[in-house]
Amino acid sequence: MDEGDRPVSEDDTGDLSGPDADAAGRTDTPAGSRKTGPRETEPRSDIDAADESRWYRFRHDKDGALMWIREMLSSVAIVLVLGLLLFGVSGVWPPMVAVESGSMEPNMEVGDLVFVTDPGRFAPDAATNDIGVVTHEEGTAADYQTFGSYGSVVIYQPPGRTASPIIHRSMFRVEEGENWYDRADDRYHNADDCGELQHCPAPHGGFITLGDNNGAYDQANGLAAPVREDWVTGVARIRVPYLGYVRLIATGQAEIGDVVGMSVEVGTIEMTGESIVPIRMGGTVSLVDRPDGVRSAEAA
User: Fold this and answer.
1) Which distant-in-sequence residues (6+ apart) come within 8 Å of 116 by Cβ?
2) Given pLDDT bands bounded at 50, 70 and 90, which one contains residue 251?
3) What global pTM score does this model have?
4) Per-residue CA distances from 121 to 26, 61, 90, 131 (Å)
5) Would you say residue 263 lies in a domain?
6) Does 98 lie in the same domain as 70?
7) Which range of residues forms the domain containing residue 73?
């Protein structure tokens, strides 16, 4: 019998090596495929549990970094949502201003937060102009009152003015070249005739304005010329006491003691035209400058 025809014994099959062993251990596989063994992976349930644990901590932690991040993001989101809602209603940015001087007392106090709207929005029937402003003169005839007196309270910014916008009441309207001396209430100027009254005759058409607590028209004390319609940036609608102190304290124009009612001896307070600080994100607002010749009143 040839060696190649010899039957293989059981002992021989247990000790295959070399090329025969390779041939015996190899199985036919389709071309281009590769057989791989099992791959070890992290159990999916463990990953999901870790993610769920982090999300739970983010939502429920009462201290630590995750709590501070959550509170910061929540505050930013609330401010943005409220800002967008107020902007949508008011049509003007910023939609709120903080009162910084006493020129509109007692109807607007220092630290009040005032909601304003775009000129012309929510215009009352008593308004006779395109920006919805009712003058004190017109308000008296139509019985239209805002903030404790007749007429609209407007926010205006004369050209070239870099200080705070002015928030005062519109008293009456004048036309270009008008001698408005006889229409003016002599309690709010000390001129004997039009020649002594500033901005008389009127250099252009506009509103004569006055702070409710001031002793002179803005035009009589040189604060501004008659207020053109395009100088008016907003009309005051609602005030909320004290909330404006947040901005005033942040800009250094008020102290925390002013909010909590600390007793401070005040002395003499000048009545000025600068009355508001816009509530805005970022930026700075110039402090009040006080023109000469403005009447003053003793603080209570």
Assistant:
1) 90, 92, 95, 96, 97, 155, 234, 235, 236, 237
2) confident
3) 0.65
4) 87, 45, 8, 8
5) yes
6) no
7) 46-84
